[in-house]
Prior knowledge:
The strands form 6 sheets. Strands 3-2-4-1-10-9-11 form a 7-stranded antiparallel β-sheet. Strands 5-6-7-8-12-13 form a 6-stranded antiparallel β-sheet, covered by helices on one side. It has a 4-stranded parallel β-sheet with strand order 17-20-21-22, with helices on both faces. α10 packs across α11 (262-270) and α14 packs across α15 (415-425). The protein is built from 22 helices and 23 strands. The protein is globular and about 70 Å long. The termini are far apart. The chain binds iron/sulfur cluster (SF4). Iron/sulfur cluster binds at residues 297, 366-368, 512, 514, 516, 563-566. Iron/sulfur cluster (SF4) is lined by residues 297, 366-368, 512, 514, 516, 563-566.
Amino acid sequence: xxxxxxxxxxxxxxxxxxxxxxxxxxxxxxxxxxxxxxxxxxxxxxxxxxxxxxxxxxxxxxxxxxxxxxxxxxxxxxxxxxxxxxxxxxxxxxxxxxxxxxxxxxxxxxxxxxxxxxxxxxxxxxxxxxxxxxxxxxxxxxxxxxxxxxxxxxxxxxxxxxxxxxxxxxxxxxxxxxxxxxxxxxxxxxxxxxxxxxxxxxxxxxxxxxxxxxxxxxxxxxxxxxxxxxxxxxxxxxxxxxxxxxxxxxxxxxxxxxxxxxxxxxxxxxxxxxxxxxxxxxxxxxxxxxxxxxxxxxxxxxxxxxxxxxxxxxxxxxxxxxxxxxxxxxxxxxxxxxxxxxxxxxxxxxxxxxxxxxxxxxxxxxxxxxxxxxxxxxxxxxxxxxxxxxxxxxxxxxxxxxxxxxxxxxxxxxxxxxxxxxxxxxxxxxxxxxxxxxxxxxxxxxxxxxxxxxxxxxxxxxxxxxxxxxxxxxxxxxxxxxxxxxxxxxxxxxxxxxxxxxxxxxxxxxxxxxxxxxxxxxxxxxxxxxxxxxxxxxxxxxxxxxxxxxxxxxxxxxxxxxxxxxxxxxxxxxxxxxxxxxxxxxxxxxxxxxxxxxxxxxxxxxxxxxxxxxx
Length: 615
Ligand code: SF4
């Protein structure tokens, strides 16, 4: 291939290296890289080999395992492509329950192996996403990125980690709620802008994606994910090189004084225009960054390595157990709308600022983090999640008592609430289901029988505990109901005489647009059925959900702000579908653009009014 042949948008005076880099960037980022032979010629070019970011570029091109991410141009499917399609089918089939979005982690630790710390942190966050994992590591000059499909332990081994030298790192573990489930969409997202470039990891979904894509000149469908769009906007701001003063957003937060650096400036420029949910962790060659949207939908906390007297560094993580596992001390949650820039290990090296006007900051942590998503040993709003779930069960027992002989929880997140129900009701607690903790992906078709089989692979009843008994079964939520129905059937087959189902969240009636993978509204069981109809469908003797006020009381975080849109239909931001149309399309579909729905509340459809009374 002649690499001097047409290079649109590039000045003749640009260096050969920059031309190649830009072309590769266009192919990789914008999905134009279908010409395999051209790409192979490109990496063979001596100029490419001399590039300072050759390792990164080769990773982009080949993947860390050497698997080319493009399918061959001769029309035949490569084995890797077939595998990816199978993975995608499996993923869709497994989406019978609400799934977590992503986990992010970052570390600044001079003298410590940042890649190993990041591995441990991601491992602790694996429950937030199992589709892909990746990390970006900087040694102060060069950023190296490795990412691939699969669990953290599949993507990284000792050999990979020992090659990732540096003291600044960020990592990401992904469950796709938006965009494809493939290597291109895995994170971190890297952009070669501003010196050594930067890498970004994102937890959450954006709600004004079409507008942002237009702003950075992308055609619809060009960006693999909304995170890529944020990265493009940041790269453009970096390339434009305009410094934005940190004095503009009012309300400097407790830690730190100022925030030097051009990526800080780019974040100041870009993030106030980004709507929806984002907890971001970024690195450039010199610094670690963390940022939350103005509602703080997704969690992000700060921890300290070492002590105040003997500072060893800083850690950012989606959840506090990822701090514990690397020996960091929990300091605090980042505030909604906050940006922290970390450029050293000491107290004075954490620079904090508010990216929004204080009047625009409206804390709305996802209430389902407390109900289901977060680990039970996580701290959110200053509360340990396990205790909150136990209190949910206690209040549920007061609100909806049942005459039964055994209380059992659906593993894992239903168990603490079952303990609370038992304690408050006086009905003995016992195990009724055993979970197979080693189950990986199951290759199934998404039919009802296959779903039942998937539940059987995952859960097995303890027959001696169940047979001949009247059960209270406590679970965290019902989404489509297919999994719950299969569990109830399994318990009855095992000899349960009665099944009284208690749910530690109110009915899930609306899709989530903020980073949780939910079905469309028409597939949500509680969106169109009455309480009695749901009981009949599930085959239970009685069903009750905790009330919203009881749920908030159980969490006990005072006047803390919550997002409860999937329970109430009151979305804190405009969402990008016409909810009033009745179709409620695909969650995350790019319909009429932001602003179709009022920010606080949607019109209730007639069929919903009066459904599920008392919940
Ligand atoms: S809509 Fe529901 S799942 Fe989504 S962020 Fe809000 S509370 Fe969480």
